[in-house]
Fold MBL fold metallo-hydrolase.
Amino acid sequence: MKVFARLLALLVLLLAALPGHAAAPASSGLPSPAPGRLTVYFLDVGQGDAALIVSPTGKTVLIDGGPPEAGTRLAARLRELVKGPLDLVILTHPHLDHLGGLRAAVKAVGARRFMDPGFDHPSEAYRDLLDFVGNEVGQVMSPEPNPSSPQTLLTVGLGEGVALTVLWPRVPQEPFLANTRSDANANSIVTKLTYGKTAFLFTGDSEPPTEEVLLQKPVDLAATVLKVAHHGGKHSSTAAFLERVKPQAAVISCGVGNDYGHPSPEVLGRLRDVRARTFRTDQDGEVMAVSDGATVTLRSARGGAGASSVSGTQQSGGPVALGPIEPTPHGRAGRSVEKEPEPGASRTRTPVEPTAPAATGERFVSLKGSKVFHRESCSTLKRSKNERTVYPSRADALRERRPAEDCHP
Ligand SMILES: [Zn+2]
Ligand SMILES: [Zn+2]
């Protein structure tokens, strides 16, 4: 495979862009990623967000699914990029431009886990999606810190030292942000993906109060590549936040000629101020970022300017955002980090419900149309308005349903 070998060499040498060629996944014109790399695709879904992470070991995470009208295209692209079910689907927040294509995506390739902030939102589209994932996805979870070590950030290991860490929200340790311009946006799941000295920050549609909360925490926000919040909307991406993130490249996911004026000239200016090389899906099409742990190489489907290489920003090797979010009472430096089993391994840390006092009077509940049952206290139940069946004991529930994977009843 001469062509393949040449592609690998070019990536290693960080030379300019290759034109699309036969080995490229069909619809994008972008080259296939080399094995052993971390690849992030910022998919072109018009006005909305969708990003696919493919780890060096082939673990896959889809962050958001774009608007409903992008569903068919997203599904087709995922079929090209993903073999087997997605290991994790993250819905950053319950807005239509992020959730609209998820049903088509999950139907196309399947998914093992679904995570969303658990922030209550009354829209029918969101309710429908929760019902759908409740039936179609093995495990539905919120990014709650593990009760046994509540100060530790929730981290999902993706193999080869690649880690995806949830920085926000942190319910129930910290309440959801309230009384913001958009509380749904402000409580977007914010994640940091780290590989060697490189990092990606995914901000959903987070708002200035989200940025303030993150700035107050002893968390390393530095990222080589920033997925710009809220499609480049003018309120988010404050100067103080960008100065801490210090992105070398920024990706704005937005639609051609969108009604919102995204991205705003203000945000483009602030990104210039921190000297971030900016990509926009409305102009560049799909953007592909490949990290070897030291350098990230970005290419875009329509980018005439060629590849853009940016090197990692972190000083020490290895992920840095894995430690406690606040000093623990025992305050120690260099304490070893609790490792998360990989998705696909037998267990991920799920928001474990407070352990029920041994079987005394605890009831179990199943939602209409679902094959599983939950503990009555499970937060998944609070998020559905579906009709429910209550079982007086676990034995009764087991006769008709199987235990849910989120609360392990
Ligand atoms: Zn949005
Ligand atoms: Zn939103």
Remarks:
- The two ends are 51 Å apart (CA to CA).
- The pocket of zinc ion (ligand 1) is lined by residues 49, 95, 97-98, 205, 230-231 (CB under 6 Å).
